[in-house]
Every structure is written in C-alpha cells, then in structure tokens.
Structure prediction request, 588 residues.
Amino acid sequence: MKDGATRDGFADALLDLADDPKLVVLDAGVSDSTRTKKFGDKHPDRFFNMGISEGDMVCTAAGFATAGKVPFATGFACFLLGRTMDQVLVSLAYSNTNVKLVGSHGGLAVGEDGPTAQMIVDLAYTRAMPNMTVIQPADWEEAYQATKALFEHSGPAYFRLGRPSVKGVYDSSYKFQIGKGHVLKPGADLAVFATGIMVQESLTALESLEKDGIKPTLVNISTIKPLDEKLVIEQARKNGAVLVAEDHNRIGGLGDAVTEVLMENEIHVPVKKIAVNDTFAETGTAQDLFEKYGLSANHIVNAAKSILKK
Amino acid sequence: MNGTKLDNPDVGELTAIARELRKKSLELIYRAGSGHPGGSLSAADLMAALFFAVMKYDSKNPKSPERDRFILSKGHCTPVLYSTLARAGFLSDEDLLQYRTINSAKFLSGHPHPKTPGVEIATGSLGQGLSVGHGIALAARLDGLAYRVFVLMGDGEIQEGQVWEAAMSAQKFKSNNLIAIIDNNKVAQDNMTKDLKDLEPLEDKWVSFGWDVYRIDGHDMGQILGALEKPLHPEKPRVIIADTIKGKGVSFMEGKPGWHGKAPPEDLYNQAMKELEA
Prediction:
C-alpha cells in the first residue's frame, strides 16, 4: 500500500503511458500543483502548457482528440470546471470527444485557500452531462490504475483528484475497473458508500464503530458515473441501511446518485448523506474543515449510530 | 485526394457557386421555417473558395487523416455549411430535406455536430472553434502531417474572450498551419457589432497578438483566393479579416440585424430568390 496524493498517482501513471504517441497532456498554468510538470519535463513535445485560460485549454484538448490523440487536460478542479461549463458541455460531452479532464484539488480537502479554491459542485456539474464518465480515486494506487484505464477508455471523462497525501488502501493486487465499485470491508449493519478521501475518513470511522459492536460494510465508489448500480442495490439490501460519504456539496454528487438508484428500484432503506451541507465553507486546515462542515470520521460515526438508532 | 475541387478554379465559376450556395441556404431556411440567413449569405463566397478551390479533402472518405480541416465556429450558419457540404459530396440533396427535422439521418441540426460527415466538432456556442482548430493544428505538427486548419468565425463572435486566449496560444506555439477567417459582416443578432463592443482597430489587434494579418473584401473572389492561398508564414498563424455584408445579395436583408435568425415569409422568399438569380 502506497501512501500519497491521488494527483501523484495520476502523474506517475502518465509517465508510464508516455511510450504511446497518442498521449498528450495539457495544463492551465498550474503544472507544479497538478504534477503534470513531471510529464512535461520528460516529454516537452507532447506537453502543452496553455497558460491561465481554461476554456482555451479544454477546447484545444477537444481538437487534439478529433485528430486521434488522447489528451489529458489538467487544472485546479474549481477553475477547470467552474470556468468551462459551456466548453465542457459542447466541445467534450456533446461532441463526445475523447478528452480526459483532470481536476486536481477537489473538495474542502484543499484547506486554507478557502471557498474559491474548494470545488464542491464539480461532481454535480459533470454527472449531469450526457456522455460523461466521472471518476474519483481513493488513493495513489487507484489513481494510478484509473489513469491507465482512462487512457484506454474512449469518450469524455472527468477525473477528480485531491491535494493531500492520503493513506494507501490498495496495493498492486487490486484491479480497478471503470464502472465497478469495490467492497473494501464486508460487514452487516449498514452500507457506507464512500468516494475519494472519504474512504480513508470512513475507515477511521469504522474502527471506532467496530469498538461499539457495529460492523458496517465499506464500499469504495470510485466511478460515480456510470454508477455500479448492481452493487449499490445489492449492498443496500444486504445491509438494510445506507450512508453515503463525499467531500462535495450534498446536492448533485454521489449521495444523490445513490439515492436515485435506491428510489427507482424501490429499495426502501434509511439513507443519510455525509456531505457539505449546501453551504460555502471557510479557510482552515482540511481536518478542521472536515470537523466543522460535517465530513470527519466523528460525523460518520454519529450518523451511523443515528441511522441504526443506537 | 479531392474529388470535388475545381481543377483550375476560376473566379467566375467560384462566384457562380457562391450564388448557388446562397440560394440553397435560403431554400433550406424557408423550408425549415427557421434558421440563420444573414451570416450564411455573408459567408457564401468564403465557403465557395474554401471548399471548391483551396481545401484538400475527399468527401467519400471524410475522415482521411491528411485532409484539411474546416471548423464553422460561427455554428449558427448551418444553411451555408450544409449547402456547401452537399455540393462537395458529403451530403445528398435528400439529406438536405431533413434540415432541422426530427430523425434527420445525417443529423442536420440547427447547429453542427460531428455526426454529420464533414463536421469535425459541435459548435453553436460562440468562441470555441479557434481553440479546437488550434488543437488540431498542434496534432498535425506532432504527426508530421502537412494539413491546414481553417476556422471561420463571425465578427460578433470575437467579442468572446476565449478567441483571444486562443490567439495568444497559437502565437506561443507558432501554429502557422492555423488559418482563422473572420466573416466581418458588422452585424450581430440584436445590434450592429460596433454598438455592442467596437472591434476596431481590428488589424492592429491581431498584429499585436502576433498573427499574419490580411484584410480583404470578402465578396471579391480574387482577393479571397489570394489571402487563402498565400504560402504559410514560417511561424505565424494567419487571420483573414474578410469585410462582408450581412445578408449579401438580398436587398431587404443586407446590413440589417433583423435577419440574423429568421426565415422569410413566402413573398419575401420569392423576392430574395429572384434577386439571387439576377
């Protein structure tokens, strides 16, 4: 298990994909932060730093794709998507171009830079777009494997990465597949569907819950769209109660994706969302923000107990 | 590789094609009961020169890797685009009957989509095409292919900031195989372009952004061919500012904002077709 930031797993995979001349990488002037600089330093001919102009970058990537390249276009999630909703909708999703949009620094986990840098609506934006695949890996290994899977996958995708280093949950024996969730810890009392950094937060919560005799099932949902509906339904039925955990606003993200599937399939189980409560946060360390805005392990523990009425 | 290009394009022949494209554009709009005549008529001479004298392509093999690329960044002008694609052999006359109709076999939507043969990317939201074209131009260089990328924009369109982002990018990467054409018809949807935001001095703007700049009469076929066929600059992307008249060829449409996006009623349609015959 390798500890590290998902942005690094992504950048390391790019280096290992570089033998294929179809790969091109674009950045919007933040390549030190997104880590694409590593690729750029080794392969300057296929690295395009477009400067601080995300709309231009996204459409340039679409142009590359129409000519048979596989472009990864990277930036901070907040600006990459916040500034380019229209470009992403028209030149990527509607045109169905093979562009991988990579938004680093997602969620409150960014910390001190504050709400303009804390992207909490990107999963909602991208999930609502036809043709888009939406993926958020949980650790370095999954980010590494998902990058390779995205390179092979055809069609537009949004790949949400995080800034902080996180504890590894997978080793190389894990096999990531687009569209498949993964049961990290089998249990019986409730199903916790977590994505991204909330997988680690949930693991901490599970340790505490287990001391109180509660054994949840922890499911890592790294592909948010298309959602692994079969697994969601199966685990909701088996466990009888559901928690969904994401570092994102409670509207439009994984929580809504899961509840939609449950409702449409008439799975009547109690559901609680662990998510940002439709508010903007503030400055502070990631851990302080998680505590204050309802995302920390403590909140998961309390929500689990409340849903089980224990 | 080009089955439809004229062998020795002659200005008179191309001008006649442009007139046909104008008539076909109006016919499509009239039949559909909606569409954008003004900017289709202003661009007809440019389209005729591009598709029947300048660009290399094979309409029977529309994805050929060496083809020159064309992007209609002013995506609302599908009447002239589809008329051109039909004349160039990408579409049939039967396909054109399905312009703006449900279940259109070649997806002849009000704005372009790559499901239509000859269309590279969806447009319709202004300001995106130059960036897309630049991405293709960069890919050509990586692949060692000599094709060129032509991007047709509206004058109102270049009020979008992204156009200038792309202008800076193409300068940075010395993308000399990118050729932007501005259909400078001076009229936008609800106003004269200059009353929305004045673009002038337009040549100075592009020169200062590092482009190889030409300003021509966009209805003079000789000037159009001259600017399009000049050998590529060794490192600068090219922009051709083509001064045109919105609604060109139809007296009651010329230079008027009211004919940006509506179909003429029967009597005016008949009058327009008569004027275009002349």
Q: What stands out?
A: The longest strand of chain A covers residues 242-249. The mean pLDDT of chain A is 98. Chain A touches chain B through 33 residues (CB under 8 Å). Chain A has 13 helices and twelve strands.
